[in-house]
Amino acid sequence: MRLVIIGAGFAGMYAALSAARLRDIQGVSPEEFEIALVAPQPTLVVRPRLYEPKPETLTAPLLDIFNAIDVVYVQGSAEAIDTAARTVQIVTARDARKTLPYDRLVVATGSRLFRPNVPGLAEHGFSVASLEDAIALDQHLHGLARQPASVARDTVVVAGGGFTGIEAATEMPARLRDILGKDAKPRVVIVDRAAAIAHDMSADARPVIEDAMRKLGVEGRFGTGVAEISKSGVTLSNGEHIEAATVVWSAGLRAAPLTQQIPAERDNLGRLLVDRDLRVPSVAGVFATGDAARAACDDVGNYALMSCQHATRMGAFAGNNAAAELLGVPTRPYHQKVYVTCLDLGEAGALFTRGWERKVELVGDVAKKTKREINTVWIYPPRAERAAALAAADPERVIDL
After folding, report:
1. Which DSSP helix (H) or strand (E) runs through 191?
2. Cα separations (Å) of 42 from 72, 113, 147, 263, 390?
3. DSSP 8-state class, residue 378
4. Residue 60, SS3?
5. pLDDT, tens digit, for every residue of 37-73?
6. CA 86 to chain CA centroid, nearest Å
7. Is residue 150 within 8 Å of residue 124, measured between CB atoms?
8. SS (H, E, C) 339-350
């Protein structure tokens, strides 16, 4: 028997851990039941932190963990999925191609930044959506120090007023002062078509964000969008032009393109529709998880978001359930009734909310302490020690806040 998992992000990592845990509980050997994970590198990119400086340090090795729990790592990129033949075509680092058969497949391919056809975006836009993008932005920001002072050099426009945009924007004044000097006067502007910042936050949470923006001098342009990006700056859809040498695009994610090869229904974000076991109902042997899946969190209409918090727990359920089918034991329906947000607000602290109604629990320095713990402890992989790693993958306990 072979279970193949595509992707080494939060969902893929926990799918492997959880499947290995159930295999161990059932007393089945790795020779009888192989768990194989396919990814370009055996590394977890700590994506929720890519708005921070030094993004090249924001990764965690996974190979020792895989070895400790007898998960086979297959280096390469999944290029094609044949659900009828139950095979995955893989391209290796040397452009060789090989076929990996599967009995069960977990699609944990994550998401990609949505880049609409905005003139100049491809040439002049930056992002923090991937490690490569975040490193390119960081290098660009450091390169600004070699340019003469100007309004454009000292201005950053962040397109998108969601969580990623807010964290990138509120972190930016401190990053620019570190690079340009403590006397620099950076200008940061958030642009969003919504009428207000963080339009999906609660009425008591939004003022906390607005107050942080005032403290940091972060401006907002709401009810308008980016019409064009050029080397000299940004032109908004209302006609305003903002001189800026740096534009950070953070306006939305879409499921990775590989999900389109699964002949099944998907939502407007490209996510595969799954049942409560995270199974793709119309395709035998296929599960989807993390940002690749649209999954119900509860029975009252809440669905998992494209977030580390949801991907981690979804991964644990998907891996467990795919393994359960092969081992002939009951599956466990995915549920995630607890939902929190912890939003970094740069030097203004942080904001911690609980529940889908996003009730404010912590603000300022107290919330910042929680955010640091989340970012540096909670979201990192478990120790590369068999018992500890398997214990961390109990789907009922993963991200149980």
Report:
1. strand 187-192
2. 11, 22, 38, 28, 18
3. I
4. strand
5. 999 999 999 999 999 999 999 999 999 999 999 999 9
6. 28
7. no
8. CEEEEECHHHCE
